[in-house]
Design goal:
By secondary structure, the chain is of the alpha+beta class. An eight-stranded mixed beta sheet has the order 1-2-3-4-5-6-8-7, sandwiched between helices. Helix 5 runs antiparallel to helix 7.
């Protein structure tokens, strides 16, 4: 059985080949595009401005004295995962009138992509605090989820969130992700093993598309 599952996964990855990555997704002035080495200066500036905002939710290295990878190491690792069809590493960018290059306003990574009989992935994201509350995170999550469901053929998307992270909890609530309960000491965050709440959505739950449902809901509120 294990061998069969391995062959299934390998054949799916071979079928998609270069079509899985790179890819850019757009909705109005917002876009998800591949993270690049040359984004280092802008990405670092945004992260620096948001250090206090992001610190409580920052992944950490549980090894004694362990450090997080450098920017270059992070991008190299993400690119390798993308080549192996196990991740989609995006930055979230937003166009501004009169500015040629869209600005980085966050990051979104689809990771732990499993093919074969599972066809699922995990999604994580962060957004610039100065842009919070404008619908950027829900729109980005919806775009990425639709791409995974409708283009890559994945069946399940999972998002794991610290119980204290109210802004991220609002994102999954707005998008209709199901709360599947607690995972005790699930990830090493900000220097300690931390509990998370697990949220998920399957493709059958959004036959019309998650982005369309989200935008339709926003129009109905205006």
């Amino acid at each position: 059985m294990a061998a069969e599952l391995h062959r299934d996964a390998t054949s799916v990855i071979r079928m998609y080949g270069s079509a899985i990555w790179p890819v850019t997704l757009e909705c109005g002035d917002l876009a998800l595009r591949p993270i690049r080495y040359r984004d280092k200066r802008e990405w670092s500036e945004v992260r620096s401005r948001n250090s206090d905002w992001l610190a409580p939710w920052e992944a950490s290295n549980p090894a004694p004295g362990g450090r997080l990878p450098s920017y270059r190491q992070m991008v190299a690792s993400l690119n390798e995962q993308a080549r192996q069809s196990t991740a989609l590493p995006f930055v979230i960018v937003e166009r501004t009138a009169g500015v040629r290059e869209p600005a980085i306003v966050g990051q979104l990574t689809v990771s732990s992509i499993v093919w074969g009989s599972a066809m699922m992935a995990t999604l994580g994201y962060w957004v610039d605090k100065d842009r919070a509350g404008r619908g950027i995170a829900p729109t980005a999550v919806a775009m990425a989820t639709d791409h995974c469901f409708n283009v890559l053929g994945l069946h399940r998307m999972e998002i794991n969130i610290r119980p204290e992270n109210a802004p991220s909890l609002r994102v999954v609530e707005k998008l209709g992700f199901r709360d599947e309960g607690y995972r005790e000491r699930y990830l090493h965050i900000n220097g300690q093993w931390a509990d998370h709440r697990s949220f998920a959505l399957t493709s059958e739950e959004v036959p019309e598309g998650l982005l369309r449902r989200w935008l339709k809901g926003q129009t109905g509120r205006s």
